[in-house]
Structures are given as structure tokens and as C-alpha cells.
Amino acid sequence: MPKPHIPLEEIRTSVESCRRCPLCEGRTHIVFGEGNPEARVMIVGEAPGKNEDLQGRPFVGAAGKYLDELLAMAELAREDVFIANVLKCRPPGNRDPRPEEIEACTPYLREQTRTISPDFIVTLGNFSTKFILKTDVGITRLHGKLAQAGKFQVFPVYHPAAALYDRSKRTALEEDFATLGRLLAEEA
Ligand code: URA
């Protein structure tokens, strides 16, 4: 018997009281994720940064502003997609997520993904790509190529924060979002 889908509000309540890893000690807010609960496209980032921790919302800083521009290149707006992260709490000093934190936190992402059931998951950067695709291959080789994870089509791209100050990554990221827009139009 397949497991029933857990309503997003119920998952959020579990995350709000989560103490599965030490990141709960330093958080101001959890960053559950937000957007259209019936989105065709789910965007998965890495972890909240300082601004996200303060506001409890994903991608509200400089990388978020750039993400909005990228979404527009695929003819998408924030309200069309659901944006979540691998980790729901901010790692101190924005360091990389640790394997034990990813293990503790990702059951929530898995539940979110099952409930939203998007057609496409766009993974931003190495951490989310590695988690969703269960691969050790890096984003440099995987970006812009459609892959499959169970019933989901997965489209890995560079993380917008990594591309902000790197012209060649920025070019690749913008081309990849234009490709995403074409893929979505083809499958509409
Ligand atoms: N970077 C991420 O990966 N996620 C956020 O929410 C913000 C910045």
C-alpha cells in the first residue's frame, strides 16, 4: 500500500518543533518553503542563509532576487512554483550542510515532494542535486540535462549564489532556465 500524502501544514508543524539535529539550537525561524502547493515545478535549494533565517522564507536575499529573474526566463513567477531547501534550518556562518544534518532533515523534503508531486524538480547546486539524484557526479557535469528520480523529472542547474559572481556559470544558468521554459511549454 502506498503511504498517504501528508498535508503540507502537517509537515510544517513537524518541522517547527524539530530537534533532530543541533541546527535547531541556532535558528531564528525554520524555513519550510513556500509557493504553489500544486506546482508543476519544485525548486530545491541548499539551506537558509542569514536573511532567510531571520524572515522564515526561502531565497529572500541577493540569490533570491536573481532566482526571480531566472524564473522569469522560464516564464515562471514565484507564485507558480514551490521553493524548498535540503535543510530547513540555517547552518552557522552559512557553512556547507553536514551529512548527518542532511540525513536528519531530508525526510521532510521527501514528504514535501510526495505531497506537492511536481512534474519537474529543479535542483540548485551540488547538495540538492546529489540528494535528489542519489549521485556523486558534480553539478558541472549534470547541469542543464534532464534526469529522472523515480516518477520525477529532475533538472539540475548551478546554484544562483554560485553564479552571481561567476560570468560563465551565470551564462550557463540563464541558458538552462531558458531550456526549462521550453521543456515546460512542450509538456504543457
Ligand atoms: N540559498 C539557498 O540554497 N536557499 C535559500 O533559501 C537561500 C539561499
From TrEMBL:
<dbReference type="InterPro" id="IPR005273">
    <property type="entry name" value="Ura-DNA_glyco_family4"/>
</dbReference>
<keyword id="KW-0378">Hydrolase</keyword>
<dbReference type="InterPro" id="IPR005122">
    <property type="entry name" value="Uracil-DNA_glycosylase-like"/>
</dbReference>
<feature type="domain" description="Uracil-DNA glycosylase-like">
    <location>
        <begin position="32"/>
        <end position="178"/>
    </location>
</feature>
<keyword id="KW-0479">Metal-binding</keyword>
<comment type="similarity">
    <text>Belongs to the uracil-DNA glycosylase (UDG) superfamily. Type 4 (UDGa) family.</text>
</comment>
<keyword id="KW-0234">DNA repair</keyword>
<dbReference type="InterPro" id="IPR036895">
    <property type="entry name" value="Uracil-DNA_glycosylase-like_sf"/>
</dbReference>
<dbReference type="GO" id="GO:0046872">
    <property type="term" value="F:metal ion binding"/>
</dbReference>
<dbReference type="Pfam" id="PF03167">
    <property type="entry name" value="UDG"/>
</dbReference>
<keyword id="KW-0411">Iron-sulfur</keyword>
<protein>
    <recommendedName>
        <fullName>Type-4 uracil-DNA glycosylase</fullName>
        <ecNumber>3.2.2.27</ecNumber>
    </recommendedName>
</protein>
<keyword id="KW-0004">4Fe-4S</keyword>
<dbReference type="GO" id="GO:0004844">
    <property type="term" value="F:uracil DNA N-glycosylase activity"/>
</dbReference>
<dbReference type="InterPro" id="IPR051536">
    <property type="entry name" value="UDG_Type-4/5"/>
</dbReference>
<keyword id="KW-0227">DNA damage</keyword>
<keyword id="KW-0408">Iron</keyword>
<dbReference type="GO" id="GO:0051539">
    <property type="term" value="F:4 iron, 4 sulfur cluster binding"/>
</dbReference>
<dbReference type="GO" id="GO:0006281">
    <property type="term" value="P:DNA repair"/>
</dbReference>
